[in-house]
TrEMBL record:
Lineage: Eukaryota, Fungi, Dikarya, Ascomycota, Pezizomycotina
The protein's name: SnoaL-like domain-containing protein
Stored InterPro entries: NTF2-like_dom_sf
Top-rank taxon, per record: Eukaryota
Length: 164
């Protein structure tokens, strides 16, 4: 299947384009590295508000994974990301679709993260992000990330060295 063009339509408003660009910066700040040795901290801080918070869904899945429960501020979210980085050789991001709601300053993104666990297989984690932006549309205020539960289970198994 050919890659999907995630660029905004040419007839969109300037605010739509701002929301879209902020979304791409958000996704790429966390997941674009071919090397899992670091995340783009300056870009991460540039596209998040100081009061940013993150949570995960789906409710049942989250209820069975204590580390994903509750709301996380930027520092605890980045700590979660850094913990994952230590177990990965690389990941690749394929943005599948971006839907922008200008009135609500909300964007929905579907993306695949091809996560290669050190010394093991690559697993596709098909995610959906909901992002809410500040008044300017240039920074993310909050997000909720819906993960592929089976992919997350497999990634966890491989990282823990079980069921290889």
């Amino acid at each position: 299947m050919p890659p999907i063009d995630s660029s905004p339509a040419s007839a969109t408003s300037p605010f739509y384009k701002t929301l879209h660009a902020t979304t791409l910066s958000f996704i790429h700040s966390l997941f674009e590295s071919q090397s899992s040795t670091r995340i783009d901290a300056p870009l991460i801080h540039a596209v998040h508000t100081p009061s940013y918070n993150h949570s995960w869904g789906h409710n049942y899945f989250v209820s069975t994974h204590p580390g994903l429960q509750g709301t996380h501020d930027l520092d605890s979210f980045l700590a979660h990301m850094q913990d994952m980085l230590t177990k990965l050789e690389s990941w690749r991001t394929d943005i599948k679709n971006v839907v922008v709601d200008e009135v609500k300053r909300m964007v929905v993104v579907r993306a695949s993260y091809w996560m290669k666990v050190k010394g093991a297989e690559t697993v596709e984690n098909d995610l959906v992000w909901w992002l809410w932006m500040d008044e300017s549309g240039e920074r993310v205020e909050r997000s909720i990330e819906f993960v592929d539960a089976e992919a997350a289970r497999r990634i966890e198994e491989v990282m823990m060295g079980t069921k290889l």
